[in-house]
Amino acid sequence: MSDWIDIAALAKILAIGLVGGAGLAAVFAFGLVGLTAHQEARTAGGGSPVALAGAGFAFLVVLAGVALGVYVMLSA
Amino acid sequence: MGSTVRAWTLIANGTIGDGAGTPFWVIVVCAVAISLGTYLGGWRVIRTLGKGLVDISPPQGYAAESASATVILAASHFGFPLSTTHVCTGSVIGSGVGRRLAEVRWSVATRMVLAWLVTLPAAALVGALAWKGADLIGGAAGASVVFLVGAGLAVGLYVASRRAPVHAGNVNDEWTATKVGAK
Questions:
Q1: ipTM > 0.90 (yes/no)
Q2: How far lies B173's CA from each of A31, B15, B64, B151, B165, in Å?
Q3: With bands split at pLDDT 50, 70 and 90, how would you rate the model's confidence at B22?
Q4: Distance from CA of B107 to the nearest CA of A (A)
Q5: Residues of A in contact with B67 (CB under 8 A)
Q6: What pLDDT score was predicted for residue B96?
Q7: Which residues of A touch B62 (CB under 8 A)?
């Protein structure tokens, strides 16, 4: 079976797909949650710097992930 | 991927040499053919994937698209060719399963998998028939006849698809047993 199917390569793609695909999308979702929390706090009068900072960090992680992916592909 | 196959064909035919890159006109022809296919049949594909398989919402679509992009780019980086259609379908099913298992229409998924299984031998058969036909008639005449037959079949398929057209106006209609747009 493994003569035909490269299990190691499949595992690599599965791992990268999970981290890059599901992982980054999840981090992006957390960013949206933070942004929403900040927005709700603002309409209530205050605003939530912690939520805003968390959202900014999450979006930065997503951008960094995309940049890393592009860099790895271009440097190959 | 399609352009790579065309390049192999040209190398096998002796049109271009061993180790030659894909000629630019081959890339252009393949890109135009793929774009035309999406332009003509895109709404139908969008409806099947986004409404038939699972009724996805924009966040699910976002998750499915980013997962597809990652898998396709990672696999291409390691040098494995894979089908964007298969990857996108898997992502869409995954985004549906992640939300609620019962929402996935497995009958639609089964029909798609059956179609994929049929595609490989069917494409082989069509390729063999096209080559045999062109070879029997021979030369430019053979190639022209095969091209005209192919163009005629394509027009026939397009006309058949117009009987129940899917367009921007009905692409998101409820998924029912009868085809949308059917009269």
A1: no
A2: 32, 49, 21, 32, 13
A3: confident
A4: 26
A5: 17, 21-22, 25
A6: 87
A7: 25, 28
